[in-house]
Amino acid sequence: MTSPEGRGQRIVSWVAILCCLSLVAGVIWASNRALELTDEAYYLLSAIHPEHVRFYISAQHWILAPLWDLTESLQGFRLTGAVLLLGTASILGMGAARTLAQLTDRTATPLASLAAAAAGGVGALLYVATIAPSPSYNLLASAGAYGGLGCTLLALGRRPLIPSLLLCLLAGLCLAVCFANKPSAGICSALIVCVLVLGLEVGGRKWTCILTGLIGVLAALAGLVVIQPTEPSVQESFRGGLELFRMVQTEPVGARLIRYATSLVTSTGKALISFWPVMTLTAALMLHPRRWLAILTLCVLVLNIILEKNYLAGMTSQFQMAEALYALFILLVMISFRAWSVNSRIALLFVSLLILPFGITVGTGNSLFTQIIISLAPWTIVAALLSWMSAQSDALRLLQHGLTAVFLILVSAQVTSSYLREPYHLQEPLIAQTRPVSVGPLGTVKVDKATAQLLSDIEKAKRTCSIEPGAQFLGLFNVPGLALVFEAIPPISPWLNNSAQASTVLQYWNPETAARVVTVLAPEAHIDMSTLPERLRPEPNGYVFCGTSEIPYENRKIEIWASPIPLR
User: Fold this and answer.
1) What is the helix (H) or strand (E) element at residue 545, kind and residue range?
2) Cα 432 to Cα 101, 129, 228, 558, distances in angstroms
3) How crowded is the C-beta side of 518, counted as CA atoms within 13 Å?
4) Model pLDDT for residues 516-560, shown as the tens digit of each residue
5) Residue 550 three-state SS
6) How far is residue 289's CA from residue 283's CA, in Å, rounded to a whole number?
7) What count of other Cβ atoms lies within 10 Å of the Cβ of residue 135?
8) Among candidates 564, 562, 462, 469, which has minimal Cα distance to 520?
9) Which of 90, 187, 199, 269 could form a disulfide with 348 if both were Cys (CB 3.0 to 4.6 A apart)?
10) pLDDT tens figures, 107-127
């Protein structure tokens, strides 16, 4: 007869697997829906036209270009990003399950390993609740960190030595991808990997593993640098990109670190306050374990989530999302403290997984917990692994398994609700994106009515001014996605958010190299027109007015201008 503990573990395992499968189905369903004209378009343009990205603080286009070449469609590109997240998070889950089994002298059953991998996939796909999973510096930084730590965990204690070193080399390659896309995340993730190796590997192998991983990092970065154009140099491109970056992110490093610390403290306090009934009942349960009290605690938890609407995702709900997940994670770690802190090596494994999302987040200009949402796989893996650990009593085990199941279901609910409401920089949610249209290099995309009208207006403007594919594009400001619709090429950098950035780019732009130039003026560009350099003003340069339209998100009206048709 199966023990209650074994039944609880199996239930958690199947919850993880079913949640992961449901999220995969949702990602496939959403993969050809919506045309987001800001952030995602910036990633796409970097992938499609890497040779025109001359300034970069993140070398994401080094990795994005070959990924685009594999798919050459928006749907395929998004699915590639989702596969990268799922694959690396699954490796991390399996590596963590294997390592925990070794540290606790037990065998990782196939179901337990599969559940850990699936739990990692659930946490990784929370990324989709914020923006489509097109590969980007954020997505690739998360995937690189997952893969780096996961391969390292699979390598630890493995006999013979050669497979272990090959896995360490692969871990180094993953960390190089993380570093190239987000240097701060790459450094922090590498430090976590090194500490884990030093703490868990035995004898001289630990230094061999670290050295092999370092060789992998350096070899990958060197290879990426070598294949880049020599003009401008990589150093000059990073310097120019840093200048552009500072025009948007003006916060000093010290102030940013203080903001992180303040956010961590305040978010912890708010999570504890919002879930104080559950916290109180859990504390009582730890002092007086009773099954009825465990059931009551779980019921109050679900009611708390429903009343606070923590199951809803969206642009204005990101703190509510993070708050509930953070509170649940605190509860899981708290009631399992005696189990995972039983010795220093097990504690090191769990602490490494706990802090990895923070390591990936370091360097972001966004809110701390907004960014942690898109790198949450280590936490869902921890939740699944904790269901293995023996609690002090049947009542605590019941609560532990229940909390883990609620945690995984809550993440799945947040991702699913994101398809129904408040999408990122879109007027209508994904469920309303139903009109198939053809968008230049992206292939067929389903859009809403307002976006379909925008595309129709642009087609009219293209006919009015005889705009052919291959024109150079200047989107003033923050409308890079229109370059995709025009099948145009943004020179120097597709990332133009303000007049200061445009002025910097203009110093390196020679319009004489372009047969045609298309300029789109958003409302901010009209406001800043007096501060724009003369060469960016349409009328003084003889540009022809092609038409107007409206970007659905925030109902931003735009004007479309094109340079005169050259004489033949």
Assistant:
1) strand 544-551
2) 46, 16, 41, 24
3) 32
4) 999 999 887 777 777 777 777 888 888 999 999 999 988 899 999
5) strand
6) 10
7) 27
8) 562
9) 199
10) 778 898 999 999 999 999 999
